[in-house]
Amino acid sequence: MSYGTADSLHSLRPVTLDDVRGARKMLMGVARVTAMEGSRHLTQLVGSPVHFKCENLQRTGSFKLRGAYVRIAGLLPEERAAGVVAASAGNHAQGVALASALLGVRSTVFMPKGAPLPKISATREYGAEVRLHGQVVDETLAAAQEYAEQTGAVFIHPFDHPDIIAGQGTVGLEILEQCPEVRTIVLGIGGGGLAAGVAIAVKSIRPDVRIVGVQAAGAAAYPPSLAAGRPVSIENPVTMADGMKVGRPGDVPFEIIGELVDEVRTVSEDELSAALLLSLERAKLVVEPAGASPIAALLSDPGAFEGPVVAVLSGGNVDPVLLQRVLRHGMSAQGRYLAVRLRLTDRPGALATLLGALSVVDANVLDVSHVRTDPRLGLTEAEVELHLETKGPEHCAEVGQALRDAGYTVID
Questions:
Q1: Of residues 53, 64, 119, 203, which has the active-site annotation?
Q2: Which of 136, 156, 176 is the last residue of a domain?
Q3: With CB atoms 3.0 to 4.6 Å apart as the test, which of 35, 54, 128, 341 could cross-link to 109 if both were Cys?
Q4: What is the CATH classification number for the domain harbouring 109?
């Protein structure tokens, strides 16, 4: 099915601007009009104004409430009576749970076994019955669809339904009102519901605005799908950004994105880590890796985006354990964290001498692991692993050189 061009939106698309506007009326008093915050750091980097659309501050911590509420509110009375079922790594789960509670509908939510505990707990607290199944969202989706067939519950797809897309598109309407001079919108893509909805809303009113989608490189199903002209599956998507860990684009959003989204970029795990670190340090915003993907794209290629730019921070539901790992990874990627393993002669005062050498180059020791007994070591040798806080790549190189100059054998 072809959906035509931006000029023929109303006659050929399954989702229209009127649908998005209707969804906005439905969401009044339910979803927040989230803040638009400027980023001085990225503005300087890009060379034109950069703003954050803070959907991480939305109710349930992400944009997902918008689409879930519109979809469930549109059900017939007999469908509501049968209850709803959904599948999600976390954000859609919470959106469905809260929307169902607000509308008085019973909800069951399937989540991957590896879903972050805070997302599981929050989904239960909103009133949903949570069932853990599968390792990736696609497996969880299949289980939820089977449950729907067996019980008669209405399946609420996380992205592949016109009502979901219309609800997510309300983000685009808010962007145009809050930043009418916008030239580029950058947003993450998982299954594609948010990107499709925003594209319809924005391109219907401002076809000149460039829309750039961003995917994690290890879970990027859209580039090969767009090249093939149809949704294709990728095997074993791998990324820390669980909100983007989708192995196949949705049929409905794929067609819209193929017509209206100007470009889909990919970012690495290192770039996602650095983006999350920047959002915390410079913007004072807690953002999950999927939500930080637009920042990662701006950091990786700042000259590619015409401003003013709006980066949609789609969610802030980050597992604290993951956050700790990601921050350390981000610091390492920026040369601000260094792990080094070396050998030294095992004699009294040797470790104190090593730490003294590090203090001379102003490296802050975070952790020390000292191994004296190992078949790999000589009789008078010991192995030390150090975790250091450093000041950047040049400082890392300075630390390594100082250790070698002091006569230490640096292994790794």
A1: 64
A2: 156
A3: 128
A4: 3.40.50.1100
